[in-house]
Amino acid sequence: MEKRILTIQDLSCVGQCSLTVALPVLSAYGIETCVLPTAVLSNHTMFSKWSYLDLTPEVDNIFAVWRENGFRFDAFLLGYLGKASLMDAAERAFDTFAAEGAPVIIDPVFADNGKLYGGFDGEYVKRMARLLRRADVILPNVTEACFLTGTEYRTEHDEAYAEGLLAALKKLTDGIPVVTGVELDGKMGEAVLNGDGSVSYVMGEKLPFVRHGTGDIFASVFTAEYLSGKSLCDAADGASAFVRDCLRATPEEHFYGTLFERVLKERRGRR
Ligand code: PXL
Fold first, then answer.
1. Ligand 1 atom closest to Cα of 216?
2. Could you give the CA distance from residue 270 to residue 135 in angstroms, rounded to a whole number?
3. What's the N-to-C CA distance of the chain in angstroms?
């Protein structure tokens, strides 16, 4: 049967992130993609100004009708939620609308480069740490993993550091921790704590620049590939290769996101 996913994250009208990434990417993989927008922003918060409409007050209206219509989802992908009230809402969605065995994939999305994004605080991080209990797979970057576990943030990594983060994250969830943005020996990639306790590294070329929204691209491609039956490591490998292609496709002057649409189009041409 075809899979139907519910993705819960914000709609940033401009900025190539969150829902404007997840919808096209998951759909291009042939997955019916339903959305619960957590907020509507004029643009993402890495621009100097943004407007923000919190959609918490609408969630229960949406859920009431979904209940009447008997909707069920075969998987959940969570990204930027914005407020703790949306984490409560996400838990109600898992309790009410999950098809049997529906995996929950959570990208915590609240920090990067050693710092919290604008609008987040320690309380949000604590609530997120509790939400992770509900996940089958979690996808924090190194900064988020540090905030969630109270680990010192470092820009230089080694296996002991990555494995310390994975072990500390494992205390927060029964799911599989996948830490993104780990750097080892000049390469960049993911550290995965497998179900049997072993650790895998999925490493690739570290490109000399970064862009906003690449975490959202990673989470969307990872989820699509994982739901299509790939192993965690193969899904992580496919997602990081996709992100590298997006970065390579993006000219320097395009500062606020990546030209991921070109990569989607090229890949469709190849199928
Ligand atoms: O890409 C993560 C993200 C998603 N949504 C909003 C953001 C950010 C990162 O800053 O501001 C609104």
1. 1
2. 34
3. 21
Summarize pLDDT for 12-30 with one digit per residue, the tens. 999 999 999 999 999 999 9
Q: Compute the radius of gyration of the chain from its Cα atoms.
A: 17
226, 240 in Cβ contact below 8 A? no
Cα separation of 212 and 51, whole Å? 18
Query: Residue 271's pLDDT is what?
Result: 61
Contact (Cβ atoms closer than 8 angstroms) between residue 220 and residue 206: no
Residue 135 CB neighbour total at 10 angstroms: 23
Q: What is the predicted pLDDT for the residue at 1? A: 64
Half-sphere exposure of 230 (CA within 13 A, CB side): 15
**What is the average pLDDT across 52-79?**
98
Instruction: Please tell me the distance from the alpha carbon of residue 101 to that of residue 50, in angstroms, as a whole number.
Output: 38
pLDDT at residue 269 greater than cutoff 80: no
Q: Which tokens sit at 53?
A: 């409409």
For helices 260-270 and 232-248, the axis angle rounded to 10 degrees is 120
Complete domains list, the chain, with CATH:
4-263 (3.40.1190.20)
Q: Say what the pTM is.
A: 0.97
CA distance 84 to 195: 29
- Tokens representing residue 126 in the block: 């604590």
Q: How far is the CA of 253 from the centre of ligand 1 (A)?
A: 20
Q: What is the pLDDT of residue 35?
A: 98
Pocket of ligand 1, candidates 212, 217, 218: which has the most ligand atoms within 8 Å of its Cβ, to mutate?
212
Beta strands in the chain, from DSSP E residues, in sequence order: 4-12, 32-41, 52-54, 75-78, 104-106, 111-112, 115-116, 137-138, 176-184, 187-193, 199-205
